[in-house]
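Data deposition worksheet. Section B asks for the primary sequence of the deposited chain exactly as it was used as input, without tags or linkers unless they were present during the calculation. Section C holds the resulting structure in token form. Section D is free text for depositor observations; keep each observation to a single sentence. Incomplete worksheets are returned to the depositor.
Section A, Depositor: J.P.
Section B:
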Amino acid sequence: MKVKIKRLHDKSIIPKYAHDGDAGLDLTITSVEQLDSEHIKYGFGLAFEIPKGYVGLLFPRSSCYKQRQLMSNCVGVLDSNYRGEVSAVMIGTTNTSYKVGDRAVQLIVMPYPEIELIEVDELNETERGQGGYGSTGK
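Section C:
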């Protein structure tokens, strides 16, 4: 699948797969903005044209444990109609943070079905039923 990408400034790096068979394209930081005492916004200097029927999902790279950071919204969503700069806001638990030139997140592009919701009075019964959190034991 071909996805259009636009560099938004000279420091922007076109993402690539680190290894053959990887699901995510690593994105490289081009800007760092301390939003408040806990939140850091990383800009990647890129905009994408995700095809209709697909979504771009941003996940932190496994290296985030070294930085002691978590993505504030867990997974970023790039809708097919979004054309702005891709960025990620992290919650930092220490003074450690990524720097310009580091790879911080990975982009996975996936298809999704368009859903038509049908309101009903009853749902089909299942063996699990309404069993939720911890309902299957330890």
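Section D:
The chain is about 5% helix and 35% strand.
Residues 4-111 form a domain with the Deoxyuridine 5'-Triphosphate Nucleotidohydrolase; Chain A fold (CATH 2.70.40.10).
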